[in-house]
Sequence to fold (288 residues):
Amino acid sequence: MSFRAQLDAATARHASMLCVGLDPEPARFPLAWRGDSARIFDFCAAIVDATADLACAFKPQIAHFAAHRAEEQLERLIAHIHTHAPGVPVILDAKRGDIGSTAAMYAREAFERYQADALTLSPFMGLDSVEPYSALAEGGRYRGKGLILLCRTSNPGGADLQGQALASGERLFEHVARLAAGDWSRQLGGTELGLVVGATFPDEIARVRALAPTLPLLIPGVGAQGGDAAATVHAGWRPGAPVIVNSSRAILYAGGDAADMPTFAAAARAAAEATRASLQQALPTCRS
Fold:
């Protein structure tokens, strides 16, 4: 199944717009594993098992693995998700951005080594920096993979560039949204594009949705960054136009510093259930 088909099916099956972000920090692990980077797989797999029926996607952040020399654990984790949460897509959060042979190697890393279903990318080097990941590349080998482009990110400094006005009067993030929904989708041969828009900027979410009425929006910033779940759904969700609302630290470390082995996964599940419920509760106001 393609990324979009998996996303739509998991969203419906689990009644969920929640993406569980997997950003392992060994210093915050349960007491018996605290500080032990060899336990990254065990920690993340326990979170996946506890939330598999609550999530529409999982999003491992590659730097949290690579910094601990845990790339092999990331491979095992994505294989674990495919086996223990079948049909729930994996978005590899790597924010790659390069051209030519380098981009082709990044694509091979994401889609062949790690077997991700989708990948976050920086679009700011232009269309030819996206093409090596697309349905046009490698003889169509990556057809059905999702490419989720940075558009209006959740950090305050994102406005330094993304909010700048172009000669046309559009802001840069608006131009990215328009390209992704239009010319780039056509030129990349039906590649499944999406956009990253931060929950901390609901007005910008609404603007991106207006410009890209059918693309999936990956929306980080609910939870530890303080984004409002209801405002996020109201701004971004439309029938047939999914939102993937990511929460990482607020779920992973819901048990707090004193979490022990029996309780950390249960606390993560409870936090995921509460976040999923708050997102679903906003749907009636979107439909009215």
The longest strand covers residues 146-152. The chain has a mean pLDDT of 93.
